[in-house]
Structure formats: structure tokens, C-alpha cells
Specification:
Elements (H helix, E strand, L loop, with lengths): L1 E2 L2 E2 L1 E4 L7 E4 L6 H18 L15 E3 L2 H14 L10 H17 L7 E3 H8 L12 H8 L5 H12 L9 H17 L5 H30 L9 H24 L15 H23 L3 H9 L3 E10 L4 E8 L10 E4 L2 E12 L4 E6 L11 E6 L3 H9 L7 H11 L13
Parallel strand pairs: 5-6
Antiparallel strand pairs: 1-2, 3-4, 7-8, 7-12, 8-11, 9-10, 9-12, 10-11
């Protein structure tokens, strides 16, 4: 729970155990807030300390938050502590914690990540709720729709009641005005020395934070007991997410501990145009690869891609074994202009790669060369093909970018080196 851009109370822990709770009587007193953030953050650093092989099938480390407002608070704490030199005597650990907060926030924006997750977004991706998008932003509202309450009317009433209780980083206005503000006023009037009032404030905000932890755990349990099978493309998505997390957190930590320039990502800007372009291309590539991987494990996603023109459904009408080509008459989508050289993968058979040689949209006909798995095709066989864009083209573009290649980047670098107060590390925030 946040106050003045800083946490008033924090509840954190593993799903199977009770949460650990930290709090302060007044979040505007920075020397009081910094130690609880450091303690919480140190626990979090320990969770994310170990690196993971991007190809590993083991469960990755994750942090689950109630809703995006808590994710925003992580970002605010990154601004507060990643590069500050006060209020603690030794800020090294708190600075590391602030950088972790920033990495978690940045990772949450990566399209193929499973590291920093919000319960509301996860539930909305798994279920369809009979409510407007605005109402679906409340975690308690979503959970009550999924709990067993009998009739639809009963569920609606339970969800509406739950919606009246705040789950975001803000406290319910009625409780804040009736309980918290009078206590805080008395505490300030005592020059912040009344320990009894301080204990009442902390007890109240700790209970509020604990409720948010419990409802997040409740959402996580609903997700994990879902009987639907895991999409086969999840392993690919996990690999992409681990590669991103390694770039954001694991590699800079290793460099920092080795006494090298870590190259941390900035909290508000990428500092250089080329760096921004590189991160954009990585996100765009990850989004494309994620959607393609999940489409091969879910026919409904595959059908959506076909309707969007990123795939086709049709029957094989001819096979040329010598030329290693097949002719397909496609029935879906309605209008498809196939470019020569477009690559496709067969649904649920990613080993079979096909490339368009020629096409006739008026006859709904396409000739495809088969580079792998030719023996798997037969006349009259029905195919569902998903467009496959090779990732090496974008990856080569990313790898060959020169971070100091543009004139504006060179000027920024020169200005940083000539700064009388010390160098500005490109890619960081100092």
C-alpha cells in the first residue's frame, strides 16, 4: 500500500506460508520508510539472485501483485531508491533493491514474460467476465465471479459487494477519513512521538496490506487449479522471458559484482535513440514469437491468426515429389494476398516448414515448397498453416546496431564525459 509515492505497508511471502509484513506510522518520514523497503527488497533480491538457464523447464522465480497499481508503486520505488544517496548511512543494498524494482517493472512490459505478473491481468486472460473493462480492473470483483455462489444473480451480488472494498494501493476513502486521518493527525500533533497512536496506525495499514496479499493468493490458487491443459507453446514463451530477464537483471548484477560497468536500463528513458530502437525491436519480435508459439498449442488462437491474414486453411490438391512442392486450395481466410517467399509452419507440426513459390488469389491457390517433412503430406489432406517470420532477420538487426552510431548519441556521450560532476553512464540513471 502506497502513501506519498512510498509504501505505507508491505505484505509479502510465498503462497504456502504466512506473509511477512512491514509498516511505518507515517510514509512521509523517509528515514522510517527506507529500512522497511530495504528489508522487503533484500528478501526479493534473494528470490531473484540465482540465474536460470533460458532453456530450462524448471519453474521460474515470479512476483505476483494484485493489480497494475502495485506494479506502478514498484516503479515509483525504483525512482526513489535506485540511485539515491540518502536517507540510510549505507545505501548500497537499497540501491540494488531499487534497481531490482525497476527491472521487475520493465520486465512486466515485455510481451513474453512470466516474471512480474498481476492477478487481474492473469484472470482476465483466462476467463471471460460479464462486465465492462473498467469493473474488471478490481481483483475482488473477478474472484467473486469465479467462486461458487450458485446463481448468476448471487454471483453478481457478491462481486458487486467485493467491488466496494479497495484492493489497489489506495485505502478505502471511508476508512481513511474515519479511522486513519484522525490517528495520523494525533500522531503529527505529538511531534511523531506517541508510540500508542503509531502502533494503531501500523496495525490498521498492516491489516489492509495483509488483505491484499490474501486476495492475491486466492487468485493464484484459482489459476493453478484450472483443469485446462498447459499450452505447448508455453515453453517457448518461458525461454524468451528468461532471456529478457537475464539481460535486465542477471547480467548487470554479475558485471556490478565484478567491478565492471553494469549498464542498467534507465527508469524513464533509454537515453539513446539506438537503444530505444533495439528494445522496441526486441519487444516486437518477442510479441510475434509468443503469439506464434501459443497458436501452435491452441487452435482458437490459430484461427484468429488465419482470420487476420497470418495463416491459411486449405486442402492439398497436388504433390510434386521431385520438386518438393505441394499445391493447396485454401478456403480461409476470405481474402489473402500471399507474398512470394512467405514461410509457414503446419499447426501442431512445427518441424514442417513450407514457403510460398507462387499464388493466385482469384483461384484461391498457392504452391508451397517443402523444405522439411515432405513425407507427412497426402492428397486431399486438410492443412492449417500459420505464418512464420524467421527471427534471425530481426535479431541480426538488433545485434548489429551501434549504440553510439548516431550524431545525437555521440553528442550525449561527449556531454556526459565533460560533465563536471562526473560521468553519466549511458544506459543507466546516474
Amino acid at each position: 500500500m502506497g502513501g506519498e509515492g512510498r509504501p505505507w505497508a508491505i505484505a509479502a511471502g510465498f503462497q504456502a506460508a504466512s506473509p511477512k509484513v512491514w509498516s511505518v506510522a507515517d510514509p512521509r518520514v523517509q528515514p522510517d520508510v527506507a529500512p522497511i523497503v530495504e528489508s522487503f527488497g533484500t528478501d526479493l533480491v534473494d528470490v531473484f539472485r540465482e540465474g536460470m538457464d533460458p532453456e530450462s523447464t524448471e519453474r521460474s522465480q515470479q512476483i505476483w501483485l494484485p493489480d497494475p497499481s502495485h506494479l506502478d508503486l514498484l516503479h515509483q520505488m525504483a525512482f526513489a531508491y535506485a540511485y539515491e544517496r540518502w536517507p540510510l548511512e549505507d545505501m548500497s543494498q537499497l540501491n540494488r533493491v531499487g534497481k531490482l524494482f525497476n527491472c521487475l517493472f520493465l520486465q512486466s512490459t515485455f510481451p513474453a514474460q512470466m516474471t512480474a505478473l498481476t492477478a487481474t491481468d492473469a484472470l482476465r486472460s483466462l476467463f471471460i467476465f460479464p462486465a465492462t473493462p473498467a469493473r474488471q480492473g478490481h481483483l475482488g470483483f473477478l474472484i467473486e465471479w469465479l467462486n461458487e455462489h450458485g446463481s448468476r444473480t448471487a454471483r453478481l451480488n457478491a462481486a458487486s459487494n467485493a467491488e466496494e472494498r479497495a484492493v489497489s494501493t489506495s485505502i478505502d476513502g471511508q476508512f481513511e477519513r474515519r479511522i486513519l486521518q484522525p490517528l495520523l493527525r494525533r500522531y503529527i500533533e505529538s511531534n511523531r512521538t506517541d508510540s500508542s497512536v503509531a502502533a494503531q496506525i501500523r496495525s490498521f495499514v498492516e491489516e489492509e496490506a495483509r488483505k491484499r496479499w490474501e486476495i492475491t493468493v486466492g487468485a493464484l490458487r484459482i489459476i493453478r487449479r484450472d483443469p485446462r491443459p498447459i499450452n505447448s507453446g508455453v515453453s517457448k514463451v518461458k525461454s524468451l522471458g528468461r532471456q529478457s530477464w537475464s539481460r535486465l537483471w542477471l547480467e548487470p548484477v554479475a558485471k556490478e559484482e565484478a567491478g565492471k560497468v553494469p549498464g542498467w536500463r534507465g527508469r524513464e528513458t533509454d537515453r539513446t535513440a539506438v537503444a530505444a530502437a533495439r528494445h522496441y525491436l526486441r519487444n516486437e519480435l518477442a510479441s510475434r514469437l509468443r503469439l506464434e508459439a501459443l497458436a501452435h498449442g491452441d487452435v482458437e488462437i490459430a484461427k484468429v491468426l488465419v482470420r487476420q491474414g497470418s495463416g491459411l486453411v486449405g486442402n492439398i490438391v497436388a504433390i510434386d515429389s521431385q520438386a518438393a512442392t505441394i499445391d493447396v486450395h485454401f478456403t480461409e481466410p476470405e481474402n489473402l494476398d500471399i507474398r512470394e517467399g512467405t514461410t509457414y509452419k503446419c499447426f501442431c507440426n512445427s518441424s514442417a516448414t513450407l514457403q510460398s513459390v507462387e499464388s493466385d488469389a482469384s483461384r484461391r491457390h498457392v504452391k508451397l515448397s517443402v523444405s522439411e517433412g515432405q513425407d507427412a503430406f497426402q492428397i486431399a489432406q486438410r492443412l492449417l498453416l500459420i505464418e512464420h517470420a524467421p527471427d534471425f532477420l530481426t535479431q541480426n538487426k538488433i545485434d548489429n546496431m551501434n549504440t553510439n552510431g548516431t550524431r545525437i548519441d555521440q553528442l550525449l556521450s561527449q556531454a556526459a564525459r565533460s560533465d563536471e560532476e562526473g560521468p553519466t553512464l549511458i544506459g543507466g540513471d546516474e
